[in-house]
Design a protein that fits this description.
The protein is built from 11 helices and 4 strands, in the order αββααββαααααααα. With about 350 residues, it is mainly alpha-helical. It has a domain of about 220 residues. The strands form 2 sheets. Strands 1-2 form a two-stranded antiparallel ribbon. A two-stranded antiparallel sheet has the order 3-4. α2 crosses α10, α4 packs across α7 and α7 packs antiparallel against α11. The longest helix has about 45 residues. The chain is globular, with a radius of gyration of 24 Å.
Length: about 350
């Protein structure tokens, strides 16, 4: 068995985690020395706030000077923000005439488009697709291939035969199958890589899930108009109903076109973010009990919280695959319903 491709895929994951860990701001809890002379958080709630910032996209910075990070704790007001991390300039900042919501560098004037740590894992997901799929066409023609090829080939056949074709039909699925496969594996690899230590999950960013949902929305509208014609597309939104009900149902169906991609966006974002927050909450309880009560109690209860976190991580691995399936399935259904309104 060839180990080359598995090792390359492992190197992609490890390299992405290394870059995200070393070139992202490190969040720190604001500490102080209490009346007993013991260093403790200023507010125990800051423990959870700091952990939760790990699901928030962070700009890629030039790197960290690990030698003096312990000597800057006395200057929180000057060098730290409310979340306790250093305000370092992004490595990449491109000024563009965009709304302020897209500004990633508050230290400069105007809107700066910056490179975020989650984009490292988006690029890594694309590389994983290229590496994992490199032998699949040959395997499907000849039936020969290594373990990775057979596994990915089976996945591709399953996506085609059980996911896309039954919902879209053979004619439409033949045109959109490559895109649907890309969406499925792109989400799958992003979700799975987000479970590794020191990683970032791009699907916990609503901009990422929104962009994926926008693809579905464009295909719904454009595909429906191409297949039916612009006028017939809007005409067929409402079935045969009494004339006085037609205006109300037309508005409802029109809103439904917008709600469907929004539901795709929110479902993927909320599910992945919620799972990560639960895991971080259990890990945060280790530090919370140590600082709020006694270090001995924190150490005693830590196996319990770690066990809960591991249990949730196992469920998260299952959810990561299920969410890729659900997003692709619903996208196929929504696009098919727009192209073939009689269905």
């Amino acid at each position: 068995m060839s180990l080359f491709r598995p090792l390359v895929m492992l190197a992609i994951v490890v390299g992405s985690c290394f870059l995200a860990h070393n070139f992202s701001p490190h969040h720190k809890v604001a500490m102080e020395v209490n009346e007993d002379g013991v260093e403790a958080p200023v507010k125990t709630s800051d423990i959870f706030t700091t952990l939760y910032f790990h699901v928030v996209p962070a700009p890629v910075i030039a790197g960290h000077d690990h030698g003096d990070h312990g000597h800057e704790g006395d200057e929180h007001g000057e060098d730290h923000g409310h979340d306790g991390h250093h305000a370092e300039a992004p490595l990449v900042a491109i000024p563009l005439p965009l709304p302020a919501i897209f500004d990633g560098d508050k230290t400069q004037e105007g809107t700066q488009l910056v490179l975020y740590n989650l984009q490292i894992f988006q690029l890594a997901a694309l590389l994983m697709i290229l590496v994992a799929m490199s032998g699949v066409p040959t395997y499907l023609r000849t039936g020969k291939g290594d373990v990775v090829t057979r596994l990915m080939g089976g996945f591709c056949q399953w996506v085609r035969d059980d996911l896309v074709e039954p919902t879209m039909g053979k004619e439409l699925s033949a045109k959109l199958l490559p895109l649907m496969m890309y969406v499925f594996f792109f989400i799958l690899f992003m979700n799975v890589m987000g479970l590794t230590p020191m990683s970032v999950t791009p699907t916990t960013c609503i901009f990422v899930t929104g962009a994926l949902a926008l693809i579905t929305f464009v295909l719904m509208i454009a595909g429906g108009m191409i297949a039916q014609g612009p006028l017939n597309f809007f005409k067929h939104l409402v079935p045969e109903v009494p004339l006085f009900l037609w205006p109300m149902l037309f508005v409802i169906e029109l809103l439904g076109l917008l709600i469907k991609p929004v539901a795709l966006m929110i479902r993927l974002f909320a599910t992945m973010t919620g799972g990560h927050l639960v895991v971080l909450s259990f890990l945060g309880l280790i530090f919370f009990f140590s600082y709020a009560f006694t270090p001995a109690l924190g150490k005693t209860l830590s196996p319990l919280w770690v066990g809960f976190a591991v249990f949730i991580m196992i469920i998260e691995a299952f959810v990561a695959m299920i969410q890729a399936y659900i997003f692709t399935l619903l996208s196929s259904l929504f696009i098919s319903a727009s192209v073939h309104p009689e269905h």
